[in-house]
Amino acid sequence: MRSFSKQVRAVATIALIAAACRPIPTPSRPDKTSSEPSKAQVPGPAASMSHGEAPLGTPMTRPDRAADAPTPLAGHRLRLRMTTVHVHHQVAPGVVYDAWTFDSMVPGPIVRASVGDTVDFTLINGAPIPHSMDFHAAEIAPDRAYHNVLPKDSIHFQFVARVPGAFMYHCGTAPVAAHISNGMYGALIIDPRGGRPKAREFVFVQSEFYMGAPAGADSVHALDWDKVLNASPDYVVFNGVNNRYATTPIPVKAGEPLRIYVVNAGPNRISSFHVVGAIFDKVFADGFGRPFDGMQTWNVPVGGGAIFELRLAEPGVYPFVTHAFADATKGAVGMFRAEAR
Ligand SMILES: [Cu+2]
Question: How far away, in angstroms, is 200 Cα from ligand 1 center?
Fold first, then answer.
C-alpha cells in the first residue's frame, strides 16, 4: 500500500494539475489584518539548526484554551476570516502531532451567530497544499463555495444561517478523512433569534488522532492512514487534547444551569455523550425542534452536534465522557468540579 504522504502528494498534485487546466476564479482578496499569518507562521522546511534560545521549525498550536462558549454576536453580520496553517500540536504531554489547522488551533476557532445572521467568510490558504471549508450550517452549492483553495490563494463566500443548532465545520479537501484527522474542524453555534435561556455554556468538540511512528529530531507524529481506514485511533479527545479537562477540571456551581454544545468531528467514532452523576434535562439533536427530556446518554453522530442542558445536583466532581469506554480510555474524558453556590 502506498504511504499516506505519497497519497497526499498525489492528491495535491492532481489538484494542482486540475487547477492549472481550468481558469481559477479570482478570489476576493482580503485586506491585510492582524489575523493574517506572519511570515514566521507560514510553514517551511524544519530547520536543522538552533539559534540558541529555541529550536527553529514549525510553530506550535496556540496555548491551551478554556471550554467556555463565546458570547453571542451583537450584530447581524459576522465577518469571519480564517487561515489554514500547518503547525505542531501537542495531543498529550510529550506527544506532538504534525497538524493541519484553521488559525493554528485544533479544533479551529468557535464560530457563533444567530438565525438570520449573514456569515461573511474568507479562507486564506497559508499552507503548502490545497485546503477548503465546509460549514454544515450553510445551505449553499458546494461546487461554488467548498472547492479547493490553492496555497497562497483565498476564497470568499457568504451564507445566511437559517437553522439553530450545534454544527460542525471542516476542511472538505480529499481525502477528507485525512484533513479531518489532521485537525481541520471546529464548532459552529447558531442561536435561535432571541437566544436561549441563560446558562453557563461550554463547547466540546470530540475528535480522533491516528499516530504514525514519531520521526525527525523533534519526534513528531504524522498521520497513519491505515489506522484511519480501520477506524482505530490512538487518541479520542475533547477539544484537541488527551484528558484535557480531567487533569484540569472545569469549575462550575452546583445547581446552576449548564449548557454544553457537543460537536463530533470524528472522522470515525460516534460520541455517546454522558455526564456521570447527572441526567440531561433537555437534549436538542443538532439544535432544531423539540428537545428530548430526561436523557442519560445521547449519541452525537460523526459530523453532527447536540445541545445538552443540565444541572449538577450537589458539590462534587462529575466526569463527562463518551460512554463508548474504549474511546474514553483513549482520552475523551473530562471533569466538572461543582462547588457550593
Ligand atoms: Cu484541508
Answer: 32
